[in-house]
Amino acid sequence: MDKKTEEFYERLKVELDNSNTWPAEYLFKFIVPTDEAKIEAVKEAFNCLGAVIKTTQSKTAKFTSLSVDVQMKSAQEIVDKYIEVSTIEGIVSL
């Protein structure tokens, strides 16, 4: 991970800690190319966490958005999830 990315995640962690009391509900939003393997990879990352996952396909069906509503224990856990899913090719975290 490059220095700029590390700084981004560190800022995100500080902001999350300042605005939440843990544990807290958190809404992750992602866009991935419409590919069942990529969609399943995102779902698998949140498996066993009790997440509510909603998917919506774009009008052209080229992309799928995923909204993941889940109870998280800490800001670090959120940052770790973003880092975990960042390995999925073509994913955009919102």
Features:
globular; Alpha-Beta Plaits; four-stranded antiparallel sheet; alpha+beta; 3 helices; 94 residues; 40% helix
Number of strands: 4
Radius of gyration: 14 Å
Written as H for each helix and E for each strand, in order along the chain, the element string is HEHEEHE
Indicate the structural class.
alpha+beta
Q: What name does the CATH topology carry? A: Alpha-Beta Plaits
- Count the domains: 1
Q: Assess the beta-strand content as a share of residues.
A: 25-35%
What can you tell me about this protein's structure?
There is one protein chain. The protein has about 90 residues and is an alpha+beta fold. It contains three helices and four strands, in the order αβαββαβ. It has a four-stranded antiparallel beta sheet. The longest helix is centred in the first third of the chain and has 17 residues, at about 5-20. It is globular and about 40 Å long. The protein starts with a helix and ends with a strand. This is DUF493 domain-containing protein.
